[in-house]
Design goal:
Blueprint lengths: L2 E4 L10 E4 L3 E3 L6 E6 L5 E6 L9 E5 L4 E6 L2 E6 L6 E3 L8 E5 L4 E5 L4 E5 L2 E5 L6 E8 L3 E8 L2 E8 L5 E3 L12
Parallel strand pairs: 2-5
Antiparallel strand pairs: 1-4, 2-3, 4-5, 6-7, 7-8, 8-9, 10-11, 11-12, 12-13, 14-15, 15-16, 16-17
Length: about 180
């Protein structure tokens, strides 16, 4: 069984550290979230994940049956195989992820930046919206059926309700600059 340890001290100089995004096999690149991964065969490898510009802090969000994990580092998100450090992908909205909300019943994570939303699961991206608000997206509430969001538009704030399973808009409308043409 694989194991992930976060916020570790890096190994002594000269040991291999994988730097993401990359991956690059280097002995330096020790910036961002530090992780030690123990593969299912017991061998260890070390990783450094570059931080983004969002607010989401470094944390392991899930480990899946396929021995992979997702980590967020200052708004940058990565999904990495424990047993093959070359097998990885960057998450949608990275490096600007501000809010993360788990929906365990659907085995998915909801990701939000300032203007859009995405859902991600063990097999990858489930859905990704286009721009929903001009700015200031806030998660009001989320369940396995619906997501309630509030955000800024010209002239105030609006609410939008999304379908959790496919990201479609159930109530409200997405922000469109075309509706605010300068006259």
């Amino acid at each position: 069984m694989s194991r992930i340890e976060v916020r570790i001290d890096f190994p002594p100089d000269g040991q291999r550290v994988w730097y993401y995004p990359g991956p690059t096999d280097v002995a330096v690149g020790k910036h961002g979230a530090a992780v030690r991964v123990t593969k299912s065969d017991g061998t260890k490898w070390y990783a450094s994940f570059r931080s983004g510009t969002g607010a989401a802090d470094c944390e392991i969000e899930f480990e899946s049956e396929d021995a992979s994990f997702m980590i967020l580092a200052g708004g940058a998100g990565y999904h990495v195989s424990c047993d093959d450090e070359r097998n990885w992908r960057e998450l949608p909205l990275s490096p600007h992820i501000r809010i993360v909300h788990a929906i365990p019943q659907l085995r998915s994570l909801l990701l939000f930046d300032w203007i859009q939303a995405a859902a991600y699961g063990p097999l990858g991206e489930i859905w990704h919206t286009s721009r929903l608000f001009m700015d200031d997206l806030e998660l009001v509430d989320a369940s396995e059926e619906v997501i309630h969001l509030r955000g800024s538009v010209l002239g105030g704030q609006e609410m939008i309700t999304l379908n959790t399973k496919d990201g479609s808009i159930l109530n409200g409308r997405a922000f469109d600059w075309g509706n605010y043409a300068l006259r």
